[in-house]
Structure formats: structure tokens, C-alpha cells
Specification:
21 strands, alpha+beta, six-stranded antiparallel β-sheet
Length: 408
């Protein structure tokens, strides 16, 4: 039998660190990059030990997070599970069911496929936090095409065993967790995953941080792995949502007028009508919104687009809306670089993006979600989509189980 030359996809068991407080839902939070300053205060008001104290301590307060983590461990607010485990994790809500495995994924393997560009600022922030706390405080989110032993075991555990955690959070989602500690079951999962590949659905900056943390050390150790949720996308297809842009200081009338030299621009009094047009558009399309009527951009000049797109990228990459946004609409039509200062992002909610654009006297650029198959195809080619192109849901809740190097 031929064996794969690609290093194996590894998901290793670990001794989970979990809260022991009475109200477990109140100490959890969304992933760090979805928590606004207002959200931080709400989470802290919900419980003094909310995990946001660890994941968002502030740029100059990483040592506070380490001190908090150590104190919670010594006081029993956090406890370490007695046996190393892979954790079956289920999220459910209205119209949503997702199950997967939480474990320690091997870092640096070509079997783990990034598909999105990263920025240095978030990597520096997460690296400082991980170096100081010596912990993985929240899992990244991986997808793989399964259908094998690991997938079957996940469903069997969820159907037949008693969970070690069962809570409902304020967003209406139910979260259940089971610990798989049987060495035979763990070995079967490992054998099933060995020759598979996993796509990073969420957590590109944290995975890049895992890689840098591993580079800090010449010897092997817990830094060779990073906390991850692995979901079989064939059994539980993810919901891929859009990430919208806001361009401060670019007035909507100016943005629309300058687009007319390269796009067909359709004006709508109603934002909802413009969004309906966006949803049914074929080919590249965006809605520009803010103060005044909304504008649907469709059918860009193919010669101008072709001239703007990098020749060394695949046809699939060059056809994606976010590629056309970052390489053509922003720099060529508006003269704007796609960076964190000039182009803000708003996850999922187009109305929130429009509100922010109005506050900043700017323009919201509203997008359709990227297709999952496009993200997979681009990753398989070794390419990266532009930053903030994809937002896979539902994302794992932070604070259910953590990984501390000293106990792993």
C-alpha cells in the first residue's frame, strides 16, 4: 500500500483546563476578534471571572492575564481534567447543528491549509499573549472532508454519552462537551485523520501565532501543537457569512461617482432593495451605502479588471469578489490601500456597517459571502484570499475548554 508523503494531520489529546463556577455560560465569550469594547464590559458585568479577562487583557497588560490565569488555577476557579482527552463539541441553535473534535493540532504541517492573508498587528498581539500566558486560551476552527471513523465516533458520543458540560449562552446557542479518553478510540481517530487535510476556517492569525511560538523553541514541546476545533464539513456544512468594509472619510456620492468609470452603477432609495439586488447578482457585485441612496455595482469593465489583477494568481482567485475589491475597486478606482487603517471591517451585519459609515462620514462596501468551494479550491492551490474574505459560522465559544502548556 502506498503511503502519503505529506506529514500527517495530527489531533492530539490534551488535559483540558475548564471553569468550575456555577454559571458556566456567564464565563464564556465569543472569539476575541468578535468582541467590541462595549461587549467587554457586558461580559465582565455577567461574571467577574469571564474569560475575556484572559483573551483581551489590553496591549500592555499581558502579564495581568498570566497572573489571572495562575490565580484562577490555584484557587480552583479553573481545574485541570485528570486525563488527556479529545473533546467532542456540539453547538446547536435555531436551524444550526455543528459537531466536531477539540484537540491539539500539529503545527506547521502542510496538511493544515491557510486560505487567508494575515496582518502583522494581530499576530504580534496574540503572540505576546501566548508567550506570556503559555497557554492556548481559545481554539481555532478547522474544516476537513471526513465521513470516516472520527465523524462516526463524534456522532455516537453525542447520541449515547452524558456530556461533561451542557449550557446555553445568551445568543441562544446550546453548547455540549464530552471527553473521549479511551486510547483505542483516540488511536482510531488518529488513524482516520492521518492522510486528510484541514482548512483553517477561522483563526488564521492565531495559527500564524502558533507557528511563531513554535519557532521560538529549538526543542520539542507543547508549542508544537495548538488548540483547535476540527469539524467534518461534509457532515456539518458551515455557514459562510460576509465581512463588509467601511471606508472612513470617503463620502458615498464621491465613491459612487468614481465607480461609474468602471462599473454599472444602479441607484436604490431602499438599502434592502439594493441588498436584494446584490444577493441575486451574477459575477462581481457590491453595494455602496451610507448617507443617501444606496448603489449596486455590477458588471465591471473586464479589461480594467484584467489589467489590475495579478498575473501570477489562478483564474479562480482573480474572479473572487474580495480579490476584485482589494486589487481593483479599492486601489484603482478609489486610490485606497487595503490596510487596517484605511479600510475597516464589520462582520456579517450590513446595517451595522452602514451605521458605522455614517458615523465616520464614509462609505460602506457590502459584499456577498464567499463560496466555500472557492475558499477550498484556492487553499488547495496554495494561494491565500485577501484578508477578511471569509467568516465561517458557527464559531467555537471561548472559555469552554483551554490548554495550558504546564499541564500538557
Amino acid at each position: 500500500m502506498e503511503t502519503s508523503e505529506r506529514p500527517a494531520l495530527t489531533l492530539r489529546p490534551f488535559r483540558g483546563v475548564r471553569f468550575t463556577v456555577d454559571d458556566l455560560a456567564a464565563v464564556t465569550s465569543p472569539p476575541y476578534d468578535l468582541v467590541s469594547p462595549d461587549d467587554v464590559q457586558d461580559l465582565l458585568d455577567s461574571h467577574p471571572n469571564n474569560v475575556v479577562r484572559l483573551i483581551l487583557p489590553g496591549v500592555s497588560h499581558y502579564t495581568d492575564a498570566r497572573a489571572e490565569l495562575d490565580e484562577w488555577l490555584s484557587s480552583g476557579t479553573l481545574s485541570v481534567d485528570p486525563l488527556a482527552a479529545l473533546y467532542v463539541y456540539e453547538q446547536s441553535g435555531p436551524g444550526i447543528l455543528q459537531r466536531g473534535l477539540i484537540g491539539a493540532v500539529g503545527v506547521g504541517s502542510p496538511s493544515v491549509l491557510p486560505h487567508e492573508d494575515v496582518m502583522p498587528g494581530p499576530i504580534a498581539d496574540r503572540l505576546a499573549l501566548m508567550r506570556t500566558t503559555e497557554a492556548n486560551l481559545e481554539p481555532i476552527f478547522l474544516l476537513y472532508e471526513g465521513g470516516g471513523t472520527a465523524s462516526r465516533l463524534v456522532d455516537e458520543v453525542a447520541a449515547l454519552r452524558v456530556p461533561i458540560l451542557d449550557i446555553q449562552t445568551g445568543d441562544g446557542f446550546r453548547h455540549r462537551l464530552w471527553a473521549v479518553t479511551d486510547p483505542v478510540e483516540i488511536a482510531a481517530i488518529g488513524e482516520d485523520l492521518r492522510d486528510r487535510q484541514a482548512l483553517i476556517a477561522d483563526g488564521h492569525h492565531r495559527y500564524a501565532t502558533y507557528q511563531k511560538l513554535r519557532e521560538d523553541h529549538e526543542e520539542s514541546g507543547p508549542w508544537d501543537y495548538g488548540l483547535a476545533l476540527l469539524v467534518d464539513s461534509s457532515a456539518y456544512p458551515p455557514d459562510l457569512k460576509a465581512i463588509h468594509r467601511v471606508i472612513p472619510g470617503l463620502p458615498l456620492p464621491e465613491a459612487a461617482a468614481r465607480a461609474k468609470g468602471a462599473w454599472q452603477v444602479h441607484e436604490f432609495v431602499s438599502l434592502d432593495d439594493a441588498l436584494s439586488g446584490l444577493a441575486t447578482a451574477t459575477g462581481p457585485a457590491f453595494v455602496l451605502a451610507g448617507d443617501g441612496p444606496s448603489h449596486l455595482l455590477t458588471n465591471p469593465d473586464p479589461m480594467q479588471v484584467e489589467h489590475a489583477m495579478p498575473a501570477d494568481r489562478s483564474a479562480r482567485w482573480r474572479a473572487m469578489d474580495t480579490s476584485i475589491l482589494s486589487e481593483f475597486l479599492l486601489p484603482k478606482v478609489w486610490g485606497i490601500s487595503d490596510d487596517e487603517r484605511q479600510v475597516l471591517v464589520v462582520h456579517h451585519d450590513p446595517y451595522a456597517a452602514v451605521r458605522l459609515a455614517r458615523q465616520l462620514s464614509g462609505t460602506a462596501v457590502l459584499l456577498n459571502p464567499l463560496a466555500t468551494e472557492d475558499a477550498l479550491a484556492v487553499a488547495a492551490l496554495g494561494e491565500r484570499v485577501p484578508r477578511k474574505s471569509t467568516s465561517f459560522s458557527p464559531k467555537p465559544r471561548t472559555g469552554l475548554v483551554m490548554r495550558v502548556f504546564a499541564t500538557d
